[in-house]
Amino acid sequence: MTIDTLNRTILPANEATANDTHVFPAVAGTSVQPEPEAPHDEDDFPPDDDGKPMIDMTKPLHRIVDRSVRLLAEEPLVFQKHAELVRVVIEEDGRVKPRSLRNSYVRYLLSQRANWYRNGEPVHPPEHVPKIIVERSAWERIPVWRAVTPFPAMDRDGHLPSEPGYDPRTRTYFTGQANVTVLDEPSQDDARLAVATLRDIVSDFPFANKESSEHFAAWVAGLLTPLARYAHDGNAPIAVVQANGPRVGKTTLVQLISEIACGTASPVITFTRNEDETRKRILSFLRVARSMVLVDNVIGQFGGQNVNALTTSRAFEDRVLGKSVIIEAMNDTSWFVTANNIQLAPDTAERCINVRLQSDDAKPHLRTGFKYPDLLGEVARNRDQLLSAALTILKTYIVAGKPDQGLSSWGGIR
Asked: What is the dihedral of CA 24, 25, 26, 29, to 10 degrees?
């Protein structure tokens, strides 16, 4: 494998994106389509002395509810996702997380956005109005939220958000936890320099077939996969990092990807052969739109019908635990697996990209003489530069017009 073949992983042929007319799916067999916008009824609720609209509770209920939804749409941190209202919460440590909107909090927000009256007397917003709003499946003017990203999410045109916050192009919320520098029109020389920067940071790893760089190229493809997830609507393979023995550096190699892309370690889960449990785990991570997940130290065979479906479907559905409700979540998470001499199940092998480490040391964990003894610390200190290098590779390909690489279809991945 060469660097040129990275395109097969990062930008599949189908370029239709969520930036077009695609609407985020919610329930099996349906999509979140905005409800027909009611006639503008601002005149029914004129402004009060403080400029806020006066909501007269004697007006028809549907008018009150529709106006309340439009008031809620003015909240900068309120979104809709999976047929549910959510809000983005910025915690004390700077982490950004989604939270479901409850009736009581919707009522609180409505009390801030308007003055409520009944028969000329001020009142609190009634409890039934937020309840009706929350029970809807779609909300006019409230933007669809797709994911919180710790990196600026690139769209199909190579655009990167420059400021933290919501980006309507990709429907992502950038936390602002990275300060990247990417040229508007990077050249091939810029891309080569970016590749050299990434090659240097992993120079201590014993990639197999080092002369051909195929396994280093596969690692770069794994790094670019979560960064390119919002630039296309195709699928992505699972990145399998394996070695000829234990303690060679498989998990660290994956965590380097997470530290560069996300600024933190990847969530780690263990592999189970229980298909029901696998399906529930997959849906849980997709619902919160994790950028990446690591299935660590698989023993024996890896794969199965759910794993195969994950790599060939842009959406994944299952029943919500404890409810008779089917949820369909966008498959925006990039999946990584580590193992020693892994066995891949039928149909799974062709849906994976392989990174192999080959060490001739009897005790590889006792190696010395590393260029970067504190590797994770080095990555943390230079994350902006490394992330910029990865995004430069993607941007160069897009600026070049996404040239066709003449590659055949790969395991049902488009």
From this structure: 160
Separation between Cα atoms, residue 128 and residue 136, nearest integer Å:
13
The strand pair at 115-118 and 121-123 is best described as antiparallel
Query: 137: pLDDT confidence band, cut at 50, 70 and 90?
Result: confident
Residue 317, strand partner residues: 328
**Torsion 309-311-316-320 (CA) sign:** positive
R_g of the chain computed on alpha carbons: 24
Q: Is the pLDDT of residue 16 over 70?
A: no
Boundaries of every domain in the chain: 3-21+178-399, 42-143
The CATH number corresponding to 3-21+178-399 among 3.20.20.140, 3.40.50.2000, 2.60.120.560, 3.40.50.300 equals 3.40.50.300
| Distances 368 to 205, 247, 373 between C-alpha atoms, Å | 12, 14, 8
Strand 121-123, strand 96-100: pairing: unpaired
Cβ atoms of 224 and 393 closer than 8 Å: yes
- Torsional class of 139: left (φ above 0), alpha (ψ -120 to 50), beta (otherwise): beta
- 98: exposed, middle or buried (Cβ count in 10 Å: 0-12, 13-18, 19+): buried
- Binned at pLDDT 50, 70 and 90, residue 177 comes out as confident
CA distance 130 to 106: 6
pLDDT, residue 268, reads: 92
At residue 35, the pLDDT reads: 47
Backbone angles phi, psi at 54, to 5 degrees: -95, 115
Q: Is residue 123's pLDDT more than 70?
A: yes
Contact 311, 236 (CB under 8 A): yes
